[in-house]
Design goal:
The complex is a heterodimer of chains A (about 625) and B (about 1150). With about 625 residues, chain A is mainly alpha-helical. Helices cover about 35% and strands about 5% of the residues of chain A. Chain A is built from 22 helices and twelve strands. Chain B is mainly beta. Chain B has a 22-stranded antiparallel barrel. A five-stranded mixed β-sheet of chain B has the order 15-20-21-18-19. Chain B has a four-stranded antiparallel β-sheet with strand order 8-7-10-11, covered by helices on one side. The radius of gyration of chain B is 36 Å and the shape is globular. Classes of the chains: A mainly alpha (about 625), B mainly beta (about 1150). The interface between A and B is large, with 101 and 95 residues.
């Protein structure tokens, strides 16, 4: 009995127990695998993104018990022992991108064996996998600087020596990614080949070229182009991981890549979003402008989106974004937390209504608005101002006379908040007379609808909210929040235009082509051309004429146009300007009266500092111990 | 602890059993001389009888009924069925007997109240042969049983002669003997004892129970073995010692069992299981506790906790390789073998026990008073952020201090007092009945334990929120002798738990109190005018109503759970002497079914806070905080269900023979199969049955009771491994030497040390319970083909947004590896057993164990490999060593007074031998090699930071921190505090030493026993996260922290708690020496005082035994740690360990 039954008795595995081989048995399962590759897209459009709260764009309530990981970076708590948003190991809010890359490789190795997959589809899938592989390498490269290149998977049973890979020199990784993107480009579909209902969000040719442009601009930027701070980052083979001589030619290559991407975008009918294709009629031109600007990001699949993230993987984010423009059920303030607060620094970066920085605007300086920008303006809002600030209400100087993007992108105390269920505007109505369906304004002072309710949370820490990321069709009622979702932009045409302008300026200095792409964006924002604006309104009219001056203008334009879109966080790094991060400040949100409220106070009791080491992420200490061939980043 | 059994075999039974006593009495011939003085009673008492046509037997019965006489006779001596006629009035018994025996060849002897019927010629013969010599002397004495009870009717015979006497009702005897004589004492159910007279004039003899299982024979794996021949290391615990006033058997282990490391972390009824490990923990796998077998069938520690000590026949702990090798697959962590009682042939024996216990926490956590709480909360805010806003205004603080305040407006809650009663009660009933005849014997038992928690029952609702756990247990053991050589055994056992309690566990209720703000709101408000007609309770809360109101949480509903576990077992034993002598076949089939479900019913409390308060009129308004989300009606939560089944089969062939009186040989081979299936598997692979198949064998040889040899093997198969690795072979062997049986062992030595045995074993044991429980098939990859976490969505319509449709992805939770195989334990045990002066029995064992092939994660794989699941291999290696020791002392000082004592000591230390870890050559303190498996690594806390200047000049630490926060030592000197600065700190978390000692005394009917238990060489950590005050504006503040923390006014850099904060500080909650505590303690584990009523009185009430007792557990604790009961370790904020006062009564019939 013993021998007869022994083998069978212990063999309890029935047929068809799923193992990894089952993932490529047929097209349906292989498609799941392709989706799996997409699922590793980093936390974009998500509170856990380092980019949102990691610099001086936005701030959240700082409760040490429930602090978003990004805010830990914003507070300067990054560390090597257990890094925040660690995309290398997947720890503390990061995603494990090496796993993503391994999965891409598994897919590339196996997909050709899928029997019922057509040749065309297979080629397209392979291209998508290659793109994603490149993108994940790019994301790591931007974060960590030089990284190992994982073009092929190491076997699970590889020896301990084999698995101790080296970080490759920065430029080699750039070339690798760039080539991979070119390879991917071949079989990717054009935008118009996508079935929008089913496939929007998948990779297209223009996305591949745009990412390549972004990569090459980054490679030409000061952080990675001859950065001598990193002269001593040499691995145990003696290889310098960072190039040590500045190469202007990299800008030329980058500009070419941008131009190539722009040309392909043109062919794909990509253009700046210029009009509302919607049912709202008889809209005041100011609100129309505001909606165009907001819709350029939040209108689904609009003409300037190149690649969007089709997944909202964090429900909390929308609660934090929405403003309580009406009183809501006190039971449910958590439902509309309204905690995503625009940073004081971000507010001050917007241009004046003349399209120049407020600190340069001759009128602002002459009338003392700039000096008094943080003070309550005694005169209540009147005339055309009532389109931005509720009639007869007071707010600070800096909330008046700003460019349309200011009013479109951020909300402030007494500021008009168009949309969210309220679209009828009567320029004569004051707070008490606003009809039920009339456009609301924000009430941000303590105990007011969107103000501080309790000490702990559920209010904006600075007194500003973010309007840009909220589609005007979202709505807030006494007990309900509906949020109009949209693909969060990963790549957008404006970004590409500004990259092109930047690369051109670096490669060639100011010229017509550079101005052209800047002005396209300014025009859409309702501003005059850059040269004209500076000539007319700035106290430094020559700024647009010099490379350095124009560089500053382009950078500021990026910061304004692309605010809240995860760009400034990386831009400050590649420009080597991390020390320019401003301290978080905000209105005195405990103030119940205008006089109490309009005082600027620091948000944090301690001073936040960033230094050279913060340009790049630390590699987690335990990784350094396991793989002695790695060399740690500067300063960690 | 009293050993319980039916002690006084009814005198009447004697006759039927053809007792040996009578037989030997019949052979004696000294009646008249010995007992002439004892005629007094027979002359005094007079009996009247009027009987016609009755058998002699019935006549005797009548005599016994009407007098105190007991009549003995040897069957065959008289014809007891002979019918007689008798009519006597007020006659002495001798007259009646004379009448009865007139004309027969019978006569009688009367000894006190005992009448022995004999044949006439015997009496004459005995009279003639009485040799009275000069050397003879009179010896008196007393015979008692192990409990100190006098034994009447013990036959005492002079060895080698037919002479003898019996003991009288109080166990005493007198006999004429020579100095050279040896007396043989015998009594039914007891071992014969030989006592040399020598020059003694008084003899006290303790008769020992003839229980094969406990003394002569030891239970070994799958069999029983003569105790002297056992060479492996087995601890046997008398079931009586496990009888503690607790409804949980496992709480009795610590300190009572040599070789067991045990500790208890919680006192909550139903969750108070003790963690116990045999000889410590030497594996990193998921299963660290021993294999537990109840009547050969594997059970869980939860099942074990429910077993009644009354039902236990024997309790054995198998510790070394030789003892456990046969269990192969799961014996590596040691084995606990429990066998339940079986019926004995005889009249029904009934045993009944009732206990009532009161329990209360050994120690309650002390919290700061509400005023201090507010002041320090304000301090916590300001000291971190001078811009911060104080939560409590000065007026609130001042008003709360006012004794005449309105307590609803200015609440100051002592949540502990509001929520918990100072004590709770438990009732236990235990009943068992056994008996049987030649064909069938039975043992049936029933138990009810009723445990209550100490939550305050609230009369706001009609449902009871307090914990109430009822445990029922039923057992039937039936043995049937089908033929002389065939025996069938049926065992059925059912355990059933019914629980009623709060929605959260008792532990959680306690923890919630630690998270409740004492001053923001009262538990509930009295109804004010506005709420006159409100039907629901007005619970207190604050702000948005999301603060923890522990009271509302406790009373908002209740949870019930029900557990049933049923074992059914069938066993066949067939002697195969017709094939060869001593061959026995045993087959066993067992199945168990387990089911669990819970459900809860609850409402959502309505919360209120006070609005405007007018101090002049003392009126306030209430503001509803959640009018829309509260409910007045109950809702229902179906809870979770758990079902599983196990079946087990065993076939066993054993052979046992002694050749030429010197060569004891035994051999055994056993085959077992086990199948386990759960109905609650998380994935497909986990749902597949778990199986084991073992073949094992043993060979023993003993020469002349001096030298013993034993060899074992286990050939074990497990379904978890690939085919080629599936089976493991685990042999073991042992040697024993009974020195005291050697020829050279002198008589003096024999007197000093009647027993000395040396033994040693070595062997291999396997373990398939490696890795984690969910890792079932190492040789297969495990893939989730529908992983929502890896899904993605595309497209325009509905797909963008959290509720949009998406396609799930594919993830890997294990890579296949067909190399994974058995974990192997190599165990060495060297020990001795000795006995000193027949009073002190000592057993000591040194052990060493080497575990190899321990499954562990490959540490050499960097993240850049991109593996989703850890790669594991059988590379770990650990060792464990130590010794265990037990001493038992038995001394009977005189017939009324006895003393026993015992002590146990276990030292077990584990060590990493090989741990796959990164190259720590630069920071050698990070390496685990050489440290205990439960060693903790952490930072060395130097003290608190003095000021900001010091912080600037010190290595960078974690998160935000200020003066008064913990300063860590930069071990590697790299200018920052990181993981590399973690060093081994403190002792392991599992104690390395567990010990216990106790003494029992008996004087006449009284008995007293006490037992101390201790633990040493362990550390634990106060959880700074869980004890951080003011987290979310509501965590409680320990009084100890309030009294001793760093503050700007009192900058004590060695304060217990660092600078206050509102929330837990990352910097201060790191594992460090700051919160490390010494886990050692000594406690008065139990104390018992009992009184047994004298038998004389009981006999009239037909009661065999009646004992009343009071006992207590955990009455005193000695430890350096004062915040809570030290044994709870880091879990101190949970349901506290209880001290118990118990009163009980025990009855035998």
């Amino acid at each position: 009995m013993v021998n007869v039954s022994s083998c069978d008795y212990l063999d309890v595995i029935p047929d068809n127990v799923a193992t990894i081989e089952y993932a490529f048995r047929n097209r349906t399962e292989a498609e799941r695998y392709l989706y799996t590759l997409y699922s590793y897209i980093p936390n974009i459009g998500n509170l856990n993104a380092p980019e949102h709260l990691g610099c001086d764009e936005a701030w959240e309530m700082n409760n040490s018990d429930s602090r978003p990981n990004g805010l830990n970076i914003g507070l300067g708590y990054q560390n090597a022992a257990d890094p925040y948003m660690d995309y290398w190991t997947g720890g503390r809010g990061g995603k494990p991108l090496w796993i993503a890359i391994r999965d891409c490789n598994i897919f590339l190795e196996q997909v050709e064996g899928v029997k019922d997959l057509s040749e065309t589809e297979m080629r397209r899938w392979i291209s998508e996998a290659k793109f994603l592989k490149a993108y994940y390498h790019f994301y790591l490269l931007r974060m960590y600087g030089p990284i190992p290149i994982m073009d092929n998977n190491l076997d699970v049973s590889a020896s301990p020596d084999e698995v101790k890979v080296y970080r490759e020199p920065f430029d080699d990784v750039v070339i690798y990614i760039s080539n991979l993107l070119d390879e991917a480009y071949e079989n990717l579909p054009q935008e118009n080949e996508l079935i929008e209902a089913l496939e929007a969000g998948r990779i297209t040719r223009v996305a591949a070229k745009t990412l390549k442009a972004k990569l090459l601009v980054m490679a030409a930027s000061p952080l990675f182009n001859g950065n001598t701070d990193y002269a001593n980052i040499v691995d145990n083979r003696g290889v310098h991981l960072f190039n040590q001589t500045y190469d202007e030619n990299k800008w030329r290559i980058a500009a070419d890549a941008c131009k190539e991407a722009i040309d392909i975008a043109d062919k794909d009918n990509k253009k700046l979003y210029m009009q509302i294709m919607d049912e709202i009629t008889d809209l005041d031109k100011r609100f129309e402008r505001e909606l165009i600007l907001r819709n350029s990001v939040t209108d689904k699949w609009n003409c300037e989106l190149i690649w969007g993230k089709t997944q909202w993987d964090q429900d909390e984010f929308r609660r934090d974004l929405m403003a309580r423009i009406v009183r809501v059920n006190p039971d449910n303030t958590w439902l509309i937390r309204s905690e995503f607060a625009a940073h004081n620094g971000l507010v001050s970066r917007f241009y004046s209504s003349h399209g120049v920085p407020i600190e340069e605007d001759k009128e602002w300086l002459a009338k003392g608005w700039y000096a008094k920008r943080n003070e309550l303006r005694p005169e209540p809002s009147s005339g055309d101002e009532v389109y931005y600030v509720r009639k007869n209400e007071q707010t600070a100087y800096q909330n008046y006379n700003r460019e349309p993007r200011f009013y479109a992108f951020v909300g402030f105390d007494r500021g008009i908040y168009f949309g969210c269920g309220y679209t009828k505007f009567d320029s004569t109505s004051v707070y008490e007379t606003v009809p039920d369906d009339g456009v609301k304004d924000l009430r941000m002072r303590a105990r007011e609808a969107n103000g501080l309710q309790s000490m702990q949370n559920n209010h904006s820490r600075t007194g500003y909210v973010c309007k840009k990321l909220v589609n005007y069709k979202s709505s807030v009622t006494y007990s309900k929040l509906t949020f109009e979702y949209y693909p969060f932009p990963i790549l957008r045409l404006t970004d590409l235009y500004l990259l092109y302008a930047e690369a051109l300026n670096e490669a060639q200095g100011p010229n017509a082509e550079t101005y052209k792409y800047l002005d396209l964006i300014r025009e859409r924002a309702g501003l005059e051309g850059v040269v004209d604006s500076w000539n007319k309104y700035s106290n430094n009219p020559q700024k647009t004429k010099s490379k350095e001056g124009l560089r500053e203008i382009i950078q500021r334009e990026r910061n304004i146009e692309l605010c809240f879109e995860h760009q400034r966080f990386w831009d400050l790094r590649r420009w080597k300007k991390i020390t320019e991060i401003e301290q978080p400040r905000g209105w005195n949100i405990q103030g119940e009266t205008a006089e109490e409220y309009y005082r600027v106070l620091p948000v944090e009791s301690s001073v936040i500092t960033f230094s050279t080491r913060d340009y790049l992420w630390p590699i987690k200490e335990s990784e350094m111990i396991i793989n002695k061939n790695l060399v740690q980043n500067y300063g960690w | 602890m009293k050993n319980k059994r039916i002690k006084n075999v009814g005198i009447r039974e004697f006759r039927k059993l053809k007792c040996i006593i009578v037989a030997c009495l019949m052979a004696t011939s000294s009646w008249s001389v010995e007992f002439s003085a004892n005629l007094a009673y027979s002359q005094k008492s007079q009996i009247s009888l009027n009987l016609s046509n009755k058998t002699l037997k019935e006549v005797f019965k009548e005599i016994e009924k009407n007098s105190e006489f007991v009549i003995f006779y040897y069957e065959g001596v008289i014809d007891s069925n002979k019918r007689v006629k008798l009519n006597v009035k007020k006659q002495t018994v001798d007259k009646i007997l004379d009448t009865l025996f007139e004309g027969t060849d019978n006569t009688y002897n009367i000894v006190d109240k005992q009448i022995y019927i004999i044949k006439k010629e015997d009496k004459e013969k005995s009279n003639e042969s009485l040799p009275i010599t000069q050397q003879q002397k009179k010896v008196t004495g007393k015979v008692i049983d192990e409990l100190g009870e006098p034994l009447p009717g013990v036959a005492i015979q002079v060895k080698g002669t037919p002479r003898g006497v019996t003991t009288d009702i109080d166990g005493s005897f007198t006999i004429d003997v020579r100095d050279t004589d040896i007396l043989v004492f015998s009594y039914l159910g007891m071992q014969d004892q030989e006592v040399p007279v020598a020059n003694k004039k008084q003899l006290f003899v303790t008769m020992k129970e003839k229980s094969d299982e406990l003394e002569e024979v030891t239970v070994v794996a799958f069999a029983k073995q003569k105790k002297e021949s056992v060479v492996s290391s087995i601890s046997t615990i008398k079931p009586g010692e496990l009888k503690v006033p607790s409804s949980n058997l496992t709480t009795a282990f610590a300190g009572r069992v040599a070789g067991v490391i045990a500790y208890q972390r919680s006192g909550e009824p139903g969750r108070d299981n003790t963690d116990f490990f045999i000889r410590g923990v030497t594996t990193f796998g998921y299963k660290k506790d021993p294999l537990i077998l109840l009547d050969n069938f594997e059970i869980t520690s939860a099942d074990l906790s429910r077993i009644q000590p009354d039902d236990i026949e024997s309790f054995n702990i198998m510790k070394d390789a030789a003892a456990t090798a046969l269990y192969g697959s799961r014996g590596a962590n040691g084995v606990i073998l429990v066998t339940t009682k079986r019926g004995q042939e005889g009249k029904p024996k009934l045993n009944f026990r009732v206990e009532h216990a009161i329990s209360q926490p050994t120690k309650m956590v002390e919290l700061a008073d509400p005023i201090t709480y507010m002041k320090l909360h304000n301090e916590a805010i300001k000291t971190r952020n001078p811009l911060g806003i104080s939560l409590y205004s000065q007026s609130k603080i001042a008003n709360t201090m006012d004794p005449n305040r309105n307590p609803y407006v200015y609440p100051a809650n002592d949540w502990y007092d509001i929520m918990f009663k100072p004590s709770s009660t438990t009732q236990r009933f235990n009943f068992n009945l056994s008996g049987g005849g030649k064909v069938a014997r039975y043992y049936v038992a029933a138990t009810i334990n009723n445990d209550n928690g100490n939550l305050r029952v609230d009369n706001l609702n009609n449902f009871n929120n307090n914990i109430n756990l009822k445990r029922y247990q039923l057992r039937t053991n039936v043995d049937i002798s089908v033929t002389k050589t065939t025996e069938l055994k049926f065992r059925m056992q059912g355990s059933f738990d019914d629980y009623n309690g709060p929605i959260d566990s008792g532990d959680d209720v306690y923890k919630k109190v630690m998270n409740a703000n004492p001053v923001l709101f009262p538990p509930y408000f009295a109804k004010d005018k506005a709420n006159e007609y409100t039907m629901h309770t007005l619970f207190g809360n604050y702000d948005k109503g999301d603060y923890i109101n522990p009271y509302a949480d406790m009373v908002r509903g209740y949870k019930e759970y029900s557990t049933s576990k049923i074992f059914a077992q069938f066993e066949l034993e067939q002697k195969l002497d017709f094939i060869t002598k001593g061959l026995v076949f045993r087959g066993l089939f067992n199945t168990s079914r387990y089911s669990y479900f819970d459900l809860s019913r609850s409402f959502k409390p309505f919360y209120y806070q006070t609005g405007n308060y007018d101090p002049k009129t003392d009126e306030y308004t209430l503001i509803g905080l959640n009018e829309t989300s509260g409910t007045e009606f109950l809702s229902y939560d179906p809870g979770s269900k758990d079902v599983n089944t196990t079946t087990y089969m065993e076939a066993n062939l054993s052979w046992n023979r002694t050749f030429k009186d010197k060569h004891d040989v035994s051999a055994m081979v056993v085959f077992t199969m086990r199948n386990y299936l759960t109905g609650n598997a998380k994935d497909l692979q986990a749902s597949l049955p778990a199986r084991n198949m073992n073949t094992a064998g043993r060979l023993t040889y003993g020469y002349d009771s001096r030298y013993f040899l034993e060899a074992n093997f286990g050939y074990n198969g497990s379904e978890r491994f690939a085919k080629k690795e599936r089976f493991g072979f685990f042999p073991s062997a042992g040697l024993g030497w009974m020195v005291s049986n050697e020829n050279f062992y002198s008589e003096t030595m024999e007197k000093i040390m009647p027993k000395l045995k040396l033994k040693a074993t070595y062997g291999l044991v396997g373990n398939d319970a490696i890795g984690s429980e969910s890792e079932r098939f190492f040789y297969l990859s495990n893939v989730n083909m529908r992983d929502d976490g890896k899904g993605y969505s595309f497209g325009t319509y509905g797909n963008v947004g959290p509720s949009g449709s998406s396609i799930s992805g594919i993830s890997v939770s294990r890579y296949s590896n067909d190399q994974i195989t058995w974990e192997i334990a190599k165990k060495l045990d060297i020990g001795f057993e000795l006995n000193l002066f027949d009073k002190l029995e000592i057993q000591a064992d040194y052990f060493h164990e080497n575990r190899s092939n321990i499954l562990m994660e490959r540490a050499s794989i960097p993240s850049s490999m991109g593996l989703q699941a850890a790669v594991k291999a059988n590379v770990g290696e650990a060792s464990g060593s130590g010794f265990d020791f037990s001493a038992d002392y038995n001394h009977i000082i005189n017939k009324d007074f006895w003393v026993t004592g015992r002590a146990n000591f276990t030292f077990a230390r584990s060590k990493y031998i090989f741990n796959e870890e990164p190259d720590y050559s630069a920071t050698p303190w990070k390496s685990k090699i050489g440290y205990s498996l439960s060693q903790q690594w952490g930072f060395v806390a130097e003290r608190l930071f003095i000021d900001e200047e010091e912080i600037r000049n010190s290595p960078k630490q974690f998160g935000e921190y200020k003066a008064g926060d913990i300063k860590y030592k930069d071990i590697n000197g790299d200018g920052k505090i990181s993981d590399l600065d973690q060093v081994p700190i403190g002792f392991p978390t599992d104690p390395e030493i567990i010990y216990g000692f106790g003494i029992s005394l008996g004087y006449k009917g009284f008995d007293f026993s006490t037992f101390f238990q201790g633990s040493a060489r362990s550390s634990f950590w106060i959880d700074p996260g869980a004890t951080s005050p003011f987290v979310n504006q509501q965590s409680a503040l320990l009084k100890a922290y309030a009294d001793d923390h760093w503050s700007e006014n009192n900058r004590n850099v060695h304060a217990l708690w660092p600078r206050l904060s509102e929330g837990s500080m990352e910097n201060n909650t790191k594992m460090s020496t700051w919160f490390m505590q010494d886990g050692s303690f000594l406690r008065l584990k139990s104390l018992e005082l009992g009184y047994s009523l004298p038998r004389k009185i009981l006999k009239k009430a037909l009661i065999g035994d009646l004992r009343v007792y009071v006992s207590g557990t955990n009455l005193l604790t000695f430890s350096n740690f004062k915040l809570w009961d030290v044994e709870m370790g880091g879990n101190g904020l949970g349901y506290p360990i209880q001290k118990v006062y118990n009163i009980g009564i025990q009855l035998n019939f």
